Amino acid sequence: MRRLLIFLGIGLAACGGQTADSADSNVAPIVAPDAQPSDRAPNDLEPGAVDVRTITMSDGTEITYTLILPNGFDAAQKYPVLLAMPSGGQGVELTVSLAESTYAPEALARGWVVLSPAAPDGTLFFQGSEQYIPEFLAAHAWIQPEGGRYHLAGISNGGRSAFRVAALNPDSYASMVVFPGFPESDEDRDALPDLAGIPFAMFVGGEDPGWRERMVETRDTLESLGAEVTFDVREGEGHIMASLSDGEDIFNFLDSVRG
Question: pLDDT tens, 134-149?
């Protein structure tokens, strides 16, 4: 059963908004000295389901997101945790739909936690809303990521967002999978050396030449930096690849790179 639950997320960063015109500038979270991450799990969780929740950032911005916890979730245990950035306009309906169809079946079968935020007020996660991700994760400190780092995934605009989010806090992530995705800005490309120590999987449709070209460039740069990159062209498919819609290939990669 899907439920919309509102609670106060107390995090580490209190950041002002950023316009799309300034989205390519470096974003550094502002630390609120009186804020602490929450280390207590809410008592109204729904393990084994796609749970739709809303969290309030310390500047008053509300972020609706999907939370997937495996059956038998125990906050005292560590889990592989996927931060999944949605595609398109990154709205709530699409975020929930992707969570239900692409992430939930395999995540639940394999024991993964998934956090997938929708873009607040329509500001995409590579156009300003990326600034909220550190606080968003800090507010879920009761979820302990395996190895102390999160895995990162993104589809289309979510793939662009994944590179932006990782560029801002490269030490927070253990791997990245984009299907498709590439670094959007010069600043994101300049941050690739900081990400070269993690494994990547990059999927692109053979009938998606513009994105394929940008992703080949990104792959070549990452490999020149010593990164391990799985690059998979899905021939006969376009921008959104039906062969990835069930999440199996995504989680096969994610399971293969768990520490």
Answer: 999 999 999 999 999 9
Cis peptide before 180 (omega within 30 of 0): yes
Asked if 254 and 177 count as a contact pair (C-beta separation under 8 A), the reply is: yes
**Residue in the block written with tokens 């059963």:** 1
Instruction: Find the helix or strand (DSSP H, E) in which 54 lies.
Output: strand 50-56
Q: DSSP assignment of 105-162, as one string?
A: HHHHHHT-EEEEEPPGGG--TTTTGGGGHHHHHHTTTTSEEGGG-EEEEE-THHHHHH
Torsion from C-alpha of 6, 8, 13, 18, nearest 10 degrees: 40
The ranges assigned to domains in the chain are 4-11+42-256
CA distances in angstroms from 84 to 25, 35, 71, 100, 255, listed in the order given:
23, 25, 19, 12, 15
The pTM (predicted TM-score) of the whole model is: 0.86
**pLDDT at site 22:** 33
State which CATH number among 3.10.180.10, 3.40.50.1820, 3.50.50.60, 3.30.70.2640 fits the domain covering 4-11+42-256. 3.40.50.1820
Rg (CA), the chain: 17
